[in-house]
Design goal:
The chain has about 170 residues and is an alpha/beta fold. The protein is about 45% helix and about 15% strand.
Length: about 170
């Protein structure tokens, strides 16, 4: 079971997310602020964080910075209101959010995104299928030198650049 942290001052927001994700695959944990969530993050119990961005830009920036610092590999989904969408979206991406969604959040879209991030991640696919079996460059008959293998972090960075550059 994957644990999803929802940071929100509103109790209705995490209830909606919990109902949309379903309890058979995901465990949704609600905390009002980062300080309440910090012990779970430090213990490595959170696979993904959903942050309800409201009001105070300084507090939001600090929260996203702390999430990224403590859990650098966990995806962060920021949910912003339509009133300040442009500025809040930019700030969220600059502070390390993986994805930004506009409120009201469409639960089916959020559910699909969470499933893609957690259940179809390269790590879970590789673990379930075993190590990849690519032929070594010595057994390939080609005149060109073999392309160097890219690390997972390099591929993630390329995906991030690709996703961010789409207009």
């Amino acid at each position: 079971m994957k644990t999803v942290l929802v940071l929100s001052s509103s109790p209705a927001f995490p209830e909606t997310i919990s109902a949309g994700l379903g309890s058979s695959v995901f465990k949704v944990v609600h905390r009002i602020d980062f300080r309440q969530a910090e012990p779970l993050l430090r213990a490595g119990m959170i696979e993904l964080a959903i942050v309800d961005i409201e009001g105070d830009a300084i507090q939001t920036t600090w929260t996203l910075e702390q999430l990224r610092r403590i859990s650098p590999r966990s995806p962060i989904i920021a949910c912003v209101s339509t009133q300040n969408h442009g500025e809040a979206e930019e700030d969220a991406y600059l502070q390390g959010a993986s994805h930004v969604l506009t409120k009201p959040v469409r639960v089916r879209a959020l559910s699909a995104l969470v499933e893609r991030l957690l259940l179809q991640s390269p790590h879970s696919i590789q673990e379930s299928t075993g190590p990849s079996r690519t032929p070594s460059s010595r057994t390939m008959s080609t005149d060109k030198p073999a392309m160097p293998r890219r690390s997972a972090s390099a591929l993630e960075a390329l995906d991030l650049v690709r996703d961010s550059s789409v207009v």
